[in-house]
Amino acid sequence: MSIHEAIRAHIADRERILSVSAILFRENGYERTSVREIAKACGMLPGSLHYRYRSKDDILVDMMRLAIENIISGIVVAISSVLDPLEKMRAALRAHVNVLMSGDAMVYVLLFEWRSLQGAARVQMIAERDRYENYWQTIFDTLKVQGCIRSDVDIDMLRLIGLGAVNWVATWYNEDGKYSLEQIGDAIWQMMTRGVLTKEYDEKAKKL
Amino acid sequence: MSIHEAIRAHIADRERILSVSAILFRENGYERTSVREIAKACGMLPGSLHYRYRSKDDILVDMMRLAIENIISGIVVAISSVLDPLEKMRAALRAHVNVLMSGDAMVYVLLFEWRSLQGAARVQMIAERDRYENYWQTIFDTLKVQGCIRSDVDIDMLRLIGLGAVNWVATWYNEDGKYSLEQIGDAIWQMMTRGVLTKEYDEKAKKL
DNA sequence: GTCTATACTCTGATAGAC
DNA sequence: GTCTATCAGAGTATAGAC
User: Fold this and answer.
1) Verdict on whether the full-model pTM lies above 0.85
2) How many domains does chain A have?
């Protein structure tokens, strides 16, 4: 095996371990999932898993790093081809809902299992969450600068409440339920935009 | 001790055990809190605690029962003296935020630790959560019947998204932060009501 | 009803052979 | 790098004396 193949295999291992762990964590919670279970689900023995991650906390911290990368890049891809700022925001919300609900279990874990970390691991995790928070802040700042959102609107509050509504969806969404992910994403987008847009964009929004 | 005193003492014990446990669960999570810790914090020994609750899960289930009672009665008290339907809704939202954030740790636990329960205990807990869900559904139904909310508005979606925004506040609210609980409650109320009220009430809402 | 002492299980982590 | 075997400790639950 060449050095390049070895590196590729190592990365593939990392992603496999993390995605398998994420599914277990989402299903049963971090604390109720044992390292033995994780190893078994990965087709390894506990000792081998220990070689990659020295502790269970390390798995969770690394998972959160990857989850942030995944959700940010998911949004970047979703909005890069959209020009209109309002539609960009709607696309970003849809992407967040999609990655959270139908995509990556890691993102769910990121949002709901961070309380399991303490001490230094918690500090690292908070730094990762701040990266994502800042990313959304940039999106909203841009909307305001572009004259999309009225200048008197508190965009921090808007972001906090809006993303809260989105994240909580994960606690009640049901694949066989009354609403599709698109409907939910759009309803939240509507609730966030109603009454906060400048006149020009308010007209546009009604047509979307 | 008379039989009445004994019953009172028993109820007081229950509330003490549950509120002490709730604080520990909120702080460290359900799984990371041991029954030894709970007993110690209650000033009892593990054996005595076991006499009241045969298992740790039983504590959590009973706590959820009390939490639902507390939050519903908190809202009932807050809205009972308010006549205007719109203000009733705002008062209910404020009460929910207040009980969740500054009041009862049990309500926080109810919202964030239910995933720790499995099997029969989980079924019981879901039944309790449904009671609360139904209570809010009644509030929204009333608003619609009274001609407060436009007839074309999907009040289920409104409720799900609005309460989601409220509940998520618990993950970011900071007592020393930029916003007070009242500001947050009102901002959510505004976001929920903007663009969904009938003309008559929309005028009223602007004055509130 | 309360306390002491303990049974039993499972956990995360590791040492050392291969 | 992977596997086997095991450690030390924590977890819940309980039996039985008072």
Assistant:
1) yes
2) 1
